[in-house]
Design goal:
Elements: E1 24-35, H1 38-47, E2 49-50, E3 53-54, H2 55-68, H3 70-73, E4 84-92, E5 97-108, H4 113-131, E6 139-149, E7 156-157
Antiparallel strand pairs: 1-5, 1-6, 2-3, 4-5, 6-7
Length: about 160
Amino acid sequence: MSELSHLDREGHPLMVDVSQKKRSDRVARAEGKVLVSRNIFDILQENEKTEKGEVFTVAELAGIMAAKRTSDLIPLCHNIGLDGIKVKCRLEEEDLSVVISSEVAARECTGVEMEALTAVTIAALTVYDMCKALGKEMIITDVRLLYKSGGKSGTFTVGDES
């Protein structure tokens, strides 16, 4: 296993210097779920609207906004220019969940995995916030990176053994 890149030799935190890296096309996709009660699921399925508004629209917008602010939330994350952000919410009947997916793209010197994961996480928290008046029995789960491409480490897809 390689060394942790955000610590110097003495264990002090540092922001990785990417000034010598070449810009390349970077893409990352992430996903997460909010498990909800049958009541909340049915309300979302019926009209996706609660007292606070249209849940999916607001959650998707929150995810986009969060991706743009990732470096403000994660101390050693680079502030990078993002070229595209997509966040989508959908209902999954099988496990009574809201599935949230994100895709972030940039032409940068460093990857966009943290931005994709942040988008999903904040969108999930927004679903929770907007639905909590209907019941607090929700679980945010399975937030994970599905795919990343670009940069020295190449392409990663969930299930790869590399």
